[in-house]
């Protein structure tokens, strides 16, 4: 797959440079030639890789290597965020049928780029691993908001969700860590327990608090900490959260690389964790 480097440019011309004395901007790596079909009047395109020499802002064109032309090239009719590489690859995949193997895209800023022979395998899939309620799950809400902002556009990533619904445990004998969840049952921060036989749904911190408050009571326990849980388990590279800040960072759980953020993490910290995870996965 050919995808111009973030700092390279794709030029558009009505006529190709005639020889080595022709000059081109030093950042231009690919060149699109646009010409009218004399019979149909429809624009046709050819895409070339530019080989150049010299120093300075303008450099000599030494050679043009043809990448695709004619029926192999189409121009997408809408402006897109061309910084979102996963979006461009996914869009090009849908368009590359028959002889088509190259798609020209125009950005909302009118800059142009290309995708040649799109390869979906370069897109990393990251799982958002979280619990609900609240709904939508907090981490999912943050990641989706960041994704919509375009902050991950250069990473070539897509997110899936694995959200564990804790409402399956609701009941009169169930104890949850916090009343803010809105779950039906009892909560460690607001209820006093006097009987044995409760089910605690929480993490190690919840377990410690339960035993400190009710040392005489017998209970059962469902662990929802991603480090030890049997139900909150990743199935691929992931991002999740933990209430213990010292566990934040890059981790490996159940054989999958992931990133952990604190329950109180900011959007910036979530974005940073995802970038660090992608760097590890790419390396």
Which band does the percent of strand residues land in? 35-45%
Distance between the termini: 19 Å
Q: Numbering strands along the chain, what is their spatial order in the largest sheet?
A: 1-3-4-5-2
Count of beta strands = 17
Order of helices and strands: EEEEEEHEEEHEEEEHEEEEH
Overall mean confidence score, pLDDT: 91
Unreliable residue stretches:
none
Largest sheet, in brief, is: 5 strands, mixed
Which overall shape is indicated by the principal axes computed on the Cα atoms?
elongated
Instruction: Report the radius of gyration as a whole number of Å.
Output: 27 Å
What is the number of helices? Answer: 4
Q: What share of the residues lie within helices?
A: 10-25%
Q: What are its keywords?
A:
five-stranded mixed β-sheet; alpha/beta; 283 residues
Account of the 3D structure:
The chain is of the alpha/beta class. 17% of the residues lie in helices and 39% in strands. It has helices at residues 85-95, 138-149, 204-213, 267-282; strands spanning 9-13, 23-25, 28-36, 43-53, 58-69, 73-80, 102-107, 112-116, 124-132, 157-165, 174-176, 186-187, 198-202, 219-223, 238-242, 249-253, 256-262. The strands form four sheets. Strands 1-3-4-5-2 form a five-stranded mixed sheet, with no helix packed on it. The chain has a five-stranded mixed sheet with strand order 10-9-15-17-16, with helices on one face. Strands 12-11-13-14 form a four-stranded parallel sheet, covered by helices on one side. The longest helix has 16 residues, at 267-282.
């Amino acid at each position: 797959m050919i995808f111009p480097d973030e700092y390279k440019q794709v030029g558009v011309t009505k006529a190709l440079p005639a020889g080595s004395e022709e000059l081109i901007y030093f950042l231009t790596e690919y060149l699109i030639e646009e010409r009218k079909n004399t019979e149909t009047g429809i624009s046709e395109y050819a895409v070339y890789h530019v080989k150049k020499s010299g120093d300075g802002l303008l450099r000599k064109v030494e050679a043009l290597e043809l990448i695709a032309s004619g029926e192999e090239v189409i121009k997408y009719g809408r402006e897109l965020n061309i910084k979102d590489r996963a979006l461009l690859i996914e869009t090009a995949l849908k368009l590359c049928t028959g002889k088509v193997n190259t798609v020209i895209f125009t950005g909302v800023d009118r800059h142009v780029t290309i995708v040649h022979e799109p390869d979906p395998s370069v897109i990393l899939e990251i799982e958002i691993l979280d619990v609900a309620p609240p709904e939508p799950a907090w981490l999912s809400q943050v990641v989706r908001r960041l994704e919509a902002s375009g902050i991950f556009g250069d990473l070539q990533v897509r997110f899936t969700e694995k959200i564990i619904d804790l409402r399956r445990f609701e009941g009169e004998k169930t104890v949850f860590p916090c009343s803010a969840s809105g779950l039906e049952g009892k909560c460690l921060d607001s209820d006093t327990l006097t009987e044995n036989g409760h089910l605690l749904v929480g993490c190690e911190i919840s377990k410690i608090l339960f035993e400190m408050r009710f040392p005489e009571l017998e209970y059962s326990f469902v662990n929802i900490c991603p480090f030890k849980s049997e139900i909150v388990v990743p199935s691929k590279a992931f991002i999740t959260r933990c209430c213990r800040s010292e566990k934040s960072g890059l981790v490996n759980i159940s054989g999958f690389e992931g990133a952990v953020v604190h329950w109180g993490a900011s959007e910036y910290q979530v974005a940073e964790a995802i970038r660090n995870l992608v760097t590890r996965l790419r390396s």
